[in-house]
Amino acid sequence: MNAPDLLAASRREETLYRELVAVYETLATALGDEVVAVDPARVAAGYARAETVTDRLRQVAATLAPHRLSAATVPAAVGELWRTSAVLAATVADLNAGLVARARARRAAVATRLASLAGARQGLGAYRPLGRRPAALDQHA
C-alpha cells in the first residue's frame, strides 16, 4: 500500500471510530433513564448500526495491520491518525462497558418489577371469592 492509500485508510479508520462513539452515545441515551421506557426499535437500530460500523472497522484494521506491525516508518500524518484512533478505540471500549452496565441494570429493574407484579397478582387472586370467574372471562362464556 502506498502512502496516499495508507493515509486514506487511516482517515477512514478514524472516521469509523468517531461514528461508533456517536452510535454508542446514542444507545447510552436510549438506555440512560430507568424511569423512561426503552424504545426497542431505537435500540435495535443502534445495535445494527454499531455492528455495521464494527464490521467496517475490522476490514480497515485488517488492511492497516501489516503496516502497523512493520518496522517501516509511516508518514507523520498517518502516525497522528493512528494515535487519534487509539484514543477513540479506548473511548469506544469505555462506552461499550457503560452500555453493558446500563443494559444489565435495566434488565435487573425489569426483572424486579415483574417479580413484584407477579406477587401482587397472586395476592389479588387470594381476595377473589371462590367459584367466581373474573369479569373478563364472564364476557366470553
Q: How are the SSEs placed, and which strands pair?
A:
Elements: H1 3-32, H2 40-69, H3 76-126, H4 135-140
What does this structure look like?
The chain is built from four helices and no strands. It has 141 residues and is mainly alpha-helical.
List keywords for this structure.
mainly alpha
Which geometry do the CA atoms define? rod-shaped
**Rg, alpha carbons:** 25 Å
Main sheet: strands, sense, barrel: none
Q: From N to C, what is the helix and strand string?
A: HHHH
Uncertain parts: none
The amount of beta strand, in percent, is under 5%
The number of helical elements comes to 4
The termini sit apart by: 76 Å
Give a short overview:
The chain is mainly α. The protein is 83% helix and 0% strand. α1 runs antiparallel to α2 and α1 (3-32) packs parallel to α3 (76-126).
